[in-house]
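Narrative of accomplishments. A recurring question from our advisory board has been how the design workflow behaves on a single, concrete structure rather than in aggregate. To address it, we present the structure tokens for one chain from the evaluation set, followed by the sequence designed for it. No filtering or post-editing was applied between the two.
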């Protein structure tokens, strides 16, 4: 008897042909009317604020996915999400590092999915800005108040959902897309990206020596499951537990991970940025060696990440130091998050100044 979702090739092949129908229909309708398109653009480029999602409901009241943008799924557990936020607040510095050293290059290995980024040229041409956008999105999602009534996460997720639909629209219009790759930003690729920010981050923390309790792992996965749901991911593509998450990750990796020129180029741009902003005592070989360790030789070779193996004594020191950090008292969640966010902004002025 199977006690988890089945992610067969037949199912995932269908998911490659699916985007986010409510958002896709919205984009087609709005883009057909210059006045409505301008209204949407003004909202998208607005400074922000918790009233933004409400104002979009006022502008386009006929679209249900917008009017319901602040509705959590029935299975969401706020207490568990709070625990997930607390894990992030305690280990935010390392988690943010893992996004660059592990999560993003992991995504670039999915050749067809990464082609969307390559075709747009946004990563290669605006590496710092794109990484900043990703980092701030994660910080917004992990805010202890992100998902309270009128919390900031809802409007940020709605913007991402609309951006994805716009990317699908423009990419298909560009004439550069091969339909054998599936739909741009399809359900399988969206699920893989969500896993790279949840399951793969947890894997990275453990590889670096952090002790992460089962409850913390469950909570972090659950938080990103809710985020996936709100960004338009089909519920049958949202793992209910770590076992399902691992099965889905393995299926996507088997189906999509391969050597590609664009995957290598995206990784090269990412590495160039990481090395250019490095202010630590770590050498380029240390950083690249750590990336190879986290990704594993197979994936690192696919992405042409050439670096000597990280010396065993350095890895042992990292793991031992992080193990001790795991036992630091948890403290106040809101204060931990605020302190961590302020520290992040001070350590990354080049990202803040790129807005």
């Amino acid at each position: 008897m199977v006690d988890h979702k089945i992610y067969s090739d037949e199912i995932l092949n269908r998911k490659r042909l699916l985007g986010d129908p409510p958002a896709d229909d919205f984009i087609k309708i709005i883009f057909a009317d210059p006045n409505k398109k301008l209204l949407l653009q003004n909202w998208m480029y607005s400074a922000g604020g918790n009233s933004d999602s409400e104002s979009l409901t006022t502008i386009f009241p006929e679209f249900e996915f917008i009017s319901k943008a602040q509705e959590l799924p029935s299975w969401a557990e706020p207490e568990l999400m709070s625990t997930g936020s607390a894990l992030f607040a305690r280990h935010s510095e390392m988690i943010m590092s893992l996004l660059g050293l592990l999560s993003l290059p992991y995504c670039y290995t999915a050749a067809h999915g990464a082609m969307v980024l390559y075709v747009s040229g946004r990563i290669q041409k605006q590496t710092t800005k794109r990484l900043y956008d990703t980092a701030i999105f994660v910080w917004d999602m992990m805010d202890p108040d992100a998902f309270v009534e009128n919390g900031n996460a809802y409007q940020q997720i709605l913007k991402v959902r609309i951006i994805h639909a716009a990317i699908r629209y423009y990419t298909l219009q560009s004439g550069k897309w091969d339909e054998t790759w599936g739909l741009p930003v399809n359900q399988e690729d969206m699920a893989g990206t969500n896993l790279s920010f949840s399951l793969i981050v947890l894997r990275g923390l453990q590889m670096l020596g952090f002790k992460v309790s089962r409850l913390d792992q469950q909570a972090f996965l659950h938080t990103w499951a809710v985020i996936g749901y709100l960004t338009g991911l089909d519920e049958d593509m949202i793992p209910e537990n770590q076992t399902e998450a691992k099965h889905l990750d393995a299926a996507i990796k088997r189906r999509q991970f391969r050597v590609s020129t664009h995957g290598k180029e995206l990784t090269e741009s990412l590495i160039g940025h990481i090395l250019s902003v490095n202010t630590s005592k770590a050498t380029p070989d240390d950083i690249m060696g750590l990336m190879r360790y986290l990704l594993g030789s197979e994936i690192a070779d696919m992405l042409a990440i050439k670096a000597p193996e990280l010396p065993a004594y350095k890895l042992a020191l990292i793991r031992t130091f992080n193990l001790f950090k795991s036992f630091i008292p948890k403290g106040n969640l809101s204060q931990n998050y605020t302190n961590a966010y302020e520290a992040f902004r001070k350590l990354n002025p080049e990202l803040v100044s790129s807005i």
